[in-house]
Design goal:
single chain; about 150 residues; alpha+beta; globular
Length: about 150
């Protein structure tokens, strides 16, 4: 039995069934994607020997706006960013993060990915890292894997 027949047996017309199916598909397609991250020196390129670590979440919303929080321990971060780059490669900064408290970082209000950057996110080619005075190129990093 196909879906149309199942809806017909329940008393729904073909049009109502199509609307229900479309709404279900639309609600799935527009949900935000939240990625949990664990940052470490091992993920940096080249790898960094450090006791520092970090964790948090980055959310990419249907309109490609970016939100989230990253918290670090064992380091005094000087700056943090979301970069475009595959695992094992460094790439350009696409969103600078703002310091939030002594050990926290957040995307600034209004931060948004471009369509190209969103495709890179879907391919796993974005990462977040936190820099320090001891490691100005980045001390800890995590790949954003949807």
């Amino acid at each position: 039995m196909n879906i149309s027949n199942a809806f017909a047996r329940l008393g729904f017309s073909g049009i109502v069934a199509a609307v229900i199916i479309s709404l279900a598909a639309f609600s799935t397609a527009v949900s935000a994607e939240t990625v949990k991250v664990v940052l470490s020196g091992d993920m940096e390129v080249p790898p960094v020997k450090t006791t520092a670590s970090g964790s948090g979440t980055i959310t990419i919303n249907p309109d490609m706006s970016v939100s989230g929080t990253i918290a670090t321990t064992g380091m005094n971060g000087t700056m943090a960013h979301i970069h475009q780059g595959a695992v094992g490669k460094n790439g350009p900064v696409i969103i600078p993060l703002q310091k939030n408290g002594e050990y926290g970082w957040t995307p600034p209000p209004g931060a948004k990915l471009t369509a190209e950057q969103y495709q890179a996110f879907k391919a796993g080619d974005l990462y977040v890292n936190v820099h320090s005075a001891a490691h100005p190129g980045g001390e800890i990093r995590a790949q954003l894997m949807p």
